[in-house]
Every structure is written in structure tokens, then in C-alpha cells.
Amino acid sequence: MKVPGIAALGPDALSLGPDDLANVLKGNSGRIKTVITDQKVIAGIGNAYSDEILHVARVSPFATAGKLTDAQLAALHDAMITVLTDAVTRSVGQQAATLKGEKRSGLRVHARTGLPCPVCGDPVREVSFADKSFQYCATCQTGGKVLADRRMSRLLK
Ligand SMILES: [Zn+2]
């Protein structure tokens, strides 16, 4: 199917094998959260599912994309396929109107700031930007390190 204007899209996330993912990320000095939601790098991963994928893979959203270890890359690939496949399976047979609620109910960390992480029970944390925010679990993903939140930093100045 040809759609005008999407010629610059990266490869579809579900079409990537583990080696393909490593190649796509190789040499990229961006933060992994930003990189995997860039549709020009990998197509098909939005803000919500990227939070879920990084949580399942136990990778920090601020990790440098091109510096992930082989183990992290393997975990990230597994998580990407699992989360996106689950999402597709859940949406089968759903009415469009109920999809959003269903999608939300299956989430582990995204949009769950302050609620217990389903893996470790610690509160899910949030990083906010001017126009968006994302969620992660410090215990599971960053070795307990709380990531800088620009909104909070600004308030503290
Ligand atoms: Zn956790």
C-alpha cells in the first residue's frame, strides 16, 4: 500500500529481527526512549508502548541507544515483539470506541504515575516535558536512580 508522505518512515517494528534492531540503533547517540518513538527510525512504536517496552526490557528511557549491551538489545527486542504483539491481539475484535480503554487497562507503567509497578510494587515515576510526559519504574529500569524531570528542575531553580 502506498501512502503519500510516509516515505521517510523507518522499518516496521514487528518486521525487525534482533540483529536488525541492533543495526538500526548502532551509532545512535540519542536517548533510547526518543529513538524508538522516532517513526523515521522505527515505525509503529508510540509514546505509550515505548514506556511499556522499556519497562519489560528493564532498560532506562535515558540509556544511549547506540550503547546498549548485547543483553539489553536482546531484552529490548523481546520486549518490543511481546508488547506490540499483545497490543495487536487485544485489539482484535474490539470496537474502536472501547479500544482506548482496553489499551490503557493492559498497560504496566504508561499513564500510571504513582501507582505500584506490577513487577516490584514500587511507585511508577514520571518525567515531564512541556507538552508530554512518560513513565518508568526506577527500581526495575534505572537501578533505583530517579531521572531528572525538567519540570521539577525548573521549579527548584
Ligand atoms: Zn518496578
UniProtKB/TrEMBL annotation:
Respond yes or no to whether keyword Zinc is given for this record: yes
Any Pfam family hit: H2TH
Transferase in keyword set = no
Report which residue ranges the record marks as coiled coil: none
Q: Source species, please?
A: Mycobacterium deserti
Q: Supply the InterPro entries for this chain.
A: H2TH_FPG, Ribosomal_uS13-like_H2TH, Znf_DNA_glyclase/AP_lyase, Znf_FPG/IleRS
Q: Identify this protein by name.
A: FPG-type domain-containing protein
What superkingdom does the record give? Bacteria
| Keywords assigned by UniProt, alphabetized | Metal-binding, Zinc, Zinc-finger
Q: Where is the FPG-type domain?
A: 108-142
